[in-house]
Design a protein that fits this description.
Blueprint (H helix, E strand, L loop, with lengths): L17 E3 L2 E3 L1 H11 L2 H19 L5 H27 L7 H20 L11 H22 L3 H20 L4 H92 L5 H32 L7 E4 L1 H17 L3 E4 L5 E4 L1 H17 L5 E9 L2 E8 L6 H4 L23 H12 L2 E7 L3 E12 L19 E5 L3 H13 L3 E5 L2 H8 L7 E5 L8 H12 L5 E5 L4 H10 L2 E4 L4 H16 L1
Parallel strand pairs: 4-6, 10-11, 10-12, 12-13, 13-14
Antiparallel strand pairs: 1-2, 3-5, 5-9, 6-7, 7-9, 8-9
Helix pairs in contact: 1-4, 2-3, 2-5, 3-4, 4-5, 4-6, 5-6, 5-7, 6-7, 7-8, 7-13, 8-12, 8-16, 9-10, 10-12
């Protein structure tokens, strides 16, 4: 099957195997489809019409028996071919019958060509000029029409055209006249020309098949790459989910003992009378605060992942916020012999004050951490309807190839050993996420060994500061408060009870909701509920509060304490409407919130 044998060169697409679904597609498959799925019925109908015209024209010249026999054979062969084509088209296993189908095509071409080539040998035709000219014209037309049908598979066209035209040439050469010899030579020349045309058409078909297979290969490669990309995206999402789950689980498990440790340290502090013991306790507090900073940073990332942080934008003066930052970071800068300077900014801006303060605190903290000598400057300048808050430092600077990564989680400049004193690598990641939440722009310019400038752009309102609301005062003395503590970890309960008892509270402690209800009985003589979020048997602090409210038939102030940072848990806790504190909770924050809630209840 000449040009369609299977080849093994990997770069050749002519007979490459290409997989679409579960079938192997080759050039031979495509060739058979072209041959058997062309408008074969239209072609065969035209062939039948040519036979009928020949019968009509030769009826008076050729004996009827010859014509009827010839026409019967050629029409029978046509009907048989129609059946073969129809059967192949209906077959569900076409790929298994490709070789058989391709072998039948030259046979069909040879039979068809031979049936037309023998017409010049009919009685009386060669001597009747009109009939001879008619058949010559007819055979030239039939072979031209056969070019489109048989040339895709050149072997079948050679058989068809050769057996149709060569018998005519031979018959002309058998007549000893200049006209017949001229016709014989013309038919051989025509055969040569039409075979060249067939070869060119075969090449065109072959090229179109190659292009189709190349396109199929490209589509297949694209599908594979898309599948790989989709799998990579799925893997990345799964890795991100796994990371969040790990951080949530690790954070929860670490927060519980750290929370208890902080409570015990607070309880111990009030009983210390020796300076050397106080130094030890202070060092323990420093260590617990450092670990608490790490967990709070992880919590911020979890909150951002959970989408529970919603900006509460308002107009507020910038000066008090900058003054707080200066007060809080002055000692840290002084300990490194740095100058921390705040340029007075008497402007009013519009954004979320708490989120902006967290952004600026992280940036100032970073500037102090990475500056070994010189100064850190915090100020602002107006730029149209925006106010640019800028943090300048004379630190180590950031190289251009690192700038694009510094806002990534856990990425740190010049800290491959993960030195705790150089931070956690989460501060700028939180800055970026909060800035996106506030729709404000963060920009950075830096020169290695000279320093960096971070700029935060926020909406500018004006220069006149609005009147400040009077600060609310809350009852700070919670002595005598009856507190219900629910936590399934005994160590945490004991630590909480120690602190509350130091404050003069009366404490009822329970490890489960059922135990809490049984201890309360019908009295329900409690003023506030402190409950862990995650309790035993998949129960939550939210359920505990609702059940106690139902049993006591009254609303009792409640605080949920949690070490869980999973995004879905944070969303559930926020949706409950109860106050939420994240472990480890400082005693000052807990006491302040308890005072506030009790004051609101008594108001």
């Amino acid at each position: 099957m000449e040009a369609y044998n299977i080849k093994t060169e990997p770069t050749q697409t002519s007979i490459q195997h290409h997989s679409t679904s579960s079938k192997s597609v080759t050039m031979l498959d495509e060739l058979v489809k072209i041959l058997y799925f062309q408008p074969i019925y239209t072609i065969l109908a035209g062939h039948a019409l040519a036979v009928l015209i020949t019968l009509f024209f030769l009826w008076q010249t050729v004996p009827p028996l010859w014509l009827l026999s010839w026409s019967s054979i050629i029409i029978g062969q046509t009907l048989l071919w129609i059946g073969i084509v129809a059967k192949f088209r209906r077959s569900k296993l076409q790929s298994d019958k490709v070789k058989q189908a391709i072998m039948l095509f030259p046979i069909a071409g040879a039979i068809t060509g031979l049936l037309w080539g023998c017409t010049l040998y009919f009685p009386n035709v060669i001597n009747d000029i009109t009939s001879m000219v008619f058949l010559s014209i007819m055979i030239l037309g039939v072979t031209a029409a056969g070019l489109a049908v048989f040339s895709p598979y050149l072997r079948s066209f050679i058989a068809f055209a050769g057996l149709a035209l060569i018998p005519f040439s031979i018959r002309f050469f058998l007549e000893d006249s200049r006209l017949h010899w001229t016709l014989g030579i013309m038919f051989l020349l025509y055969l040569s020309v039409i075979l060249i045309s067939g070869y060119n058409m075969k090449r065109a078909v072959r090229k179109s098949i190659e292009l189709r297979l190349e396109n199929l290969n490209l589509v297949d490669d694209l599908i594979v790459k898309n599948t790989q990309a989709e799998q990579a995206r799925t893997d990345a999402e799964q890795a991100d989910i796994s990371k969040s789950k790990f951080l949530a689980a690790a954070s929860h498990d670490l927060r519980q003992p750290l929370h208890a440790l902080g409570l015990f340290v607070d309880a111990l502090s009030s009983r210390i009378h020796f300076p050397e013991v106080r130094d030890i306790v202070d060092n323990i507090r420093i260590s617990t605060d450092a670990l608490s900073d790490l967990l709070n940073a992880l919590l911020d990332i979890s909150k951002l992942d959970a989408g529970v942080l919603e900006p509460k934008k308002t107009d507020f003066p910038l000066r008090p916020l900058l003054q707080r930052i200066h007060t809080d970071f002055s000692e840290l800068a002084s300990n490194k012999s740095l100058s921390l300077r705040i340029v007075d900014c008497g402007y009013v801006i519009h954004t979320d004050p708490a989120m902006l303060e967290r952004i600026l605190r992280n940036l100032v903290s970073n500037a102090i951490r990475y500056t070994q000598q010189g100064r850190v400057l915090l100020g602002c300048r107006r730029q149209g309807n925006q106010l640019s808050i800028e943090i300048h430092d004379t630190g180590m600077g950031i190289s251009s190839h690192q700038i694009e990564h510094i806002f990534d989680e856990f990425y740190q400049v010049e800290n491959p050993e993960r030195d705790r004193q150089k931070g956690l690598g989460l501060g700028l990641a939180i800055v970026k996420r909060l800035a996106e939440l506030l729709h404000c722009t963060i920009s950075l310019s830096s020169t290695v060994a000279k320093g960096s400038v971070f700029k935060v752009s926020v909406p500018f309102v004006g220069s006149a500061q609005p009147a400040l609301a009077q600060a609310q005062t809350f009852v700070n003395d919670i002595k005598g408060t009856r507190v219900l503590v629910i936590d399934d970890e005994a160590l945490v309960r004991r630590g909480m009870c120690k602190v509350l008892e130091e404050w003069g509270c009366e404490v009822i402690q329970a490890e489960s909701i059922d135990q809490a209800l049984s201890l309360l009985a019908d009295a329900c003589e409690i003023d506030i509920i402190l409950t862990d979020y995650r309790l035993r048997e998949n129960q939550t602090g939210i359920e505990a509060i609702h059940r106690i409210h139902g049993a006591c038939a009254k609303q009792i102030p409640a605080i949920i304490l949690t070490g869980d940072t999973a995004p879905e848990r944070l969303r559930e806790a926020k949706a409950s409407g109860f106050r939420l504190l994240h472990k480890p909770v400082s005693s000052a924050k807990l006491r302040s919130l308890m005072s506030y809630l009790l004051d609101q209840t008594n108001a």
